[in-house]
Amino acid sequence: MRSKLFVFLSVVLALAIALGGCTQPTPTPVPQAPAAPAAPAAAAATATPAPAAPRVLKVGQVTDTGGIDDQTFNQTAWKGIQDAIEKLGIEGSYLESQQPTDYEKNITEYLRSGTDLIVTVGYLLGEDTAKFAQANSDQKFAIVDYSYSPALPNVLGLEFATDQAAFLAGYLAAGMSKTGVVGTFGGMEIPPVTIFMDAYAQGVWQYNQVHSTNVKVLGTNYYVGNFESTDDGRRAAESLMDEGADVIMPVAGVVGTGAAAVLQERGGLLIGVDADWVVTAPQYKDIVLASVLKNMDVAVYGVVEQVKAGSFIGGTWVGTLANNGVGLKSGSMEDKVPQTLKDELAAIRNDVIAKKVWTGWGEPPKDIETGIVLGENINLVFWHNQAPDSFRGKLLDEIITDFERKYPEINVIATYQSDYTSLYKKLVAAIAAGGTPDVAVSYPSMVSDYLKAGVVQELDPYISDPVIGLTAEDMSDIYPGYLAEGRFPAYGNKYYTFPFAKSAEGLWYNLDLLKEAGYDAPPKTWVEFEEMALAVHEKTGKIGYAYYENASTLDCWLFSRGTARVNADQTEAIFNDAASVEALAMMKRLIDAGAAVKPEGSYADQSEFGKGNVAFTFGSTSGTFYYQQAVVDSGNLVKEYGHTLPPQSDPAKPGTVLYGGSLVMFKTTEAKQKAAWLFIKHFSSIEETAKWGSASGYMPVRASASALLGEYFAENPIVEEQVTKIMPAAMPGPAVAGEQEMRTYAEEAMTKVFEGIAEPQEALDEAVQLANEALARGRE
C-alpha cells in the first residue's frame, strides 16, 4: 500500500487576488423553518418592551468543485445543514466552488457576511481553511475530510475511517464477483480517495485468505484527475470491465455516475461511496450492490448543534463503524447476497472494530497477517520452461496463484520460454539487449554465464534478512546438496540461485528380471551392479543395462565412487583419476559382454524398460511419470520395479548427482528484487514444496515436506524411496563458466571408450586437458 505521508496540496491564488475587486458571490440561502402563527390580539395593557428576538445562527457551506448535487460528499454534508435548518431553526446557505481558486473567495464572502460557522468540504480546502482560521481566531470552522496537527482551536476536523467500511465492501465485492475480477478507480490521488481504494483491495485480499480464492483487484492506481466528468467515469468503467471486472467501486463524486451507466448497460454491479446510492442516484438503484456510507450529514449536524449550544471545541472527530460515522449499506439486491456471506461480513465487521484485522490503511500491525510487505504494487516478470498445458505448467500456475493471494501487491507475469536451452538463449539475448526478466529458471551452470555479465543479484542479503529471510532452522531443513548448488565458488561462494525444479539421478531396476537371475533386491555396490547386469544377460537373454553417454550420468557414477569431475572450488578438472577410469572400464567390460547396450532413439531406454527388456537404467527422479507410463503402455508387463540410490563404492558415504533448474534473480530495482525474493522463497515453503513434490515429479526442497506427504507416499512407494533415499545423497555438478564445454568433452571421452576408440585413461586425460582449457577461458 502507499506510504501515508501526506503533502498539502498547493492552491494557486493569483486569480482570486485578481478578482478581489469583483462582485462577491451570493450564498444560496435556504428558508428557515416557518414561525408559529401569531396569537390573537389581547386586551390593552400597560406596554412592556418585548425582549429582542434571539439571533438566528448562520451556517455556510463551501463546496469542493464537484458541486452541491454531486450525489456524494458535498451533497451529504449539505444534508446535515438542511437537517439543522429543519430541527434547530438555523439559517443555512452554500457557495459552490467551480475551481480551486473559488475556495478563498467563498470563505472570504462568509467571513464578510458574519456567518457563525463555516463548513468547508473536502481535502483540497485544507490549506485555505487553515489560513483563514489562523487569521480569524474568533471564527468557527468545520472541515470535512481533513484535520490538523497540531489542532487549530477554532476548527473541528471531521474525518472518517472509511477504510473500515470500504474493507467490508471489498470483501463483499470479492464474494459476489462472477468473473473473479473486481475494480475501483479514484477522482484524484488524495488521502480521502485512496483510503477507500486501498481498503477495498485489502478486503478482497481478506476474502481470498478466508476462501483460498484469487479474486483480483484492478484500478488501485487509476485516477481520472477530477470529480466532475461523467465521460471520464464511463471510460474508466469500460476499461475495467474490458479487463474482466464485474463489480466496480468508483471514488470520484459525480464521475461515478458515468461508471454506473456503463455497469448498468453491461450487466455489472456498483458499490457507491459517501452516500446511499439507492437514494442519491435512484436511476441506477438496480445495479447498486452496496454503498460505503460516510455519514457526513450526521457529523455536520453535530457540529452545528455544538455551536448552537455553545459547546464547540476545535480538534478532530473521527467517524467509525463503532460510532456509526461510517458503514456499509446494502443496495437493491440484498436478497441475492448469500446468507453465509452476510454472516461473514457481520463477523468481520466486529473484527474490524476490535482491530483483529488490518483494513489496508495506516501502518500495518506487526502481529496481524496483512499480505503487505513492499508498500507498492509490483509486476514481476518470470520466465520458465513449463508448458502451460502440461500437468507441470498447470501446477505452476496454481502455486503462482497461491503466491499472489498471499502477496496482493505482487502480480506475477509468468511467461513460458520453451525448454532449458531455448530459455538460456533468450536470456543471453535479453542480457545483451539490457532487458532481463526479474526471475527466471536456469541450470546453475548457465547462471555462471549470466554472472560474467554482472546482471545476477546475490541472494545472501535476502536469505539473512530478519523480516523476510529464512531462519537457521529453515536453511537446515533444505537438502544440503540444494544449498551447495546455489553457491558459486568463483563469486565469493555466495548464493546466486535457489532450488526450484530439483531431481536427482537414481537407478531404475526391474525386480522381475533380477529375480529371474537369482536376486531379490537391487545392487548396493558397483561390484554387485556389474555382477547382476552380467547375470541378467546370461540367464534371461535381456539387457543388463541400457545406457547413453551423458555427462550428468558420469557425475552420478563419479559421486557414487567418491570423486567428481572438478575439484572443490571448481577451478580444475580431475575426472581422470583412478575412480573415474574404473567407472569407464567397468562400462566397457559390460558392453563387451553384451550386458550393456545403447538403445536407438530418444528415451528408448525408458521404452525398453517398460517392455521388460532391460534390468537397469540410470535416470532422473523427475522421469517417474514417464517410466510408469512406459510400463502402462506396454501392457504392464513389468510387475515389480523401482527407483533407488545408485550403486556405491562405499554405501556409508553415498553420493549421486543433483539435477534440475534453479531460480535466479536479476538486478532490477530494490522493490522488484524484494518481490522476486519473496517469490523465490515461496517455492521453498513447506506447503508449496510438498504440493510441487507430490504432483510435478520433481522433488521437494525441504526434508520436512515428507510429513505432509504420508498419503501420497503410501500410494507412490517409488517416490517415497526417491525422497528419503536418493535426494539426501544428491550433490550438485559443476556450476562454473566453461561447464557446457566440459560436458561435451566428458561425453566425447565416454563415446571413445565405449566404442573402443581409446582406453579409459587416454580418453579421460585428453578430456581433462580440454576441460581445464575451457575453465581457464571461463575465468577470463
Describe the structure.
By secondary structure, the chain is α/β, with parallel strands linked by helices. It has 29 helices and 25 strands. The strands form four sheets. Strands 14, 15, 16, 19, 20, 21, 22, 23, 24 and 25 form a ten-stranded mixed sheet that branches. The longest helix is centred in the N-terminal third of the chain and has 21 residues, at 191-211. The protein is elongated, with a radius of gyration of 37 Å. The two termini are 46 Å apart. Residues 1-24 and 30-47 have low confidence and may be disordered.
Output the keywords.
ten-stranded mixed β-sheet; 780 residues; disordered N terminus; seven-stranded mixed β-sheet
Please provide the count of β strands: 25
Helix content: 40-55%
Average pLDDT rating:
90
Beta-strand percentage range: 15-25%
Rg over CA atoms, rounded to whole Å, is 37 Å
Largest sheet: 10 strands, mixed
Based on Cα principal axes, name the global outline: elongated
Number of helices: 29
Distance between the termini: 46 Å
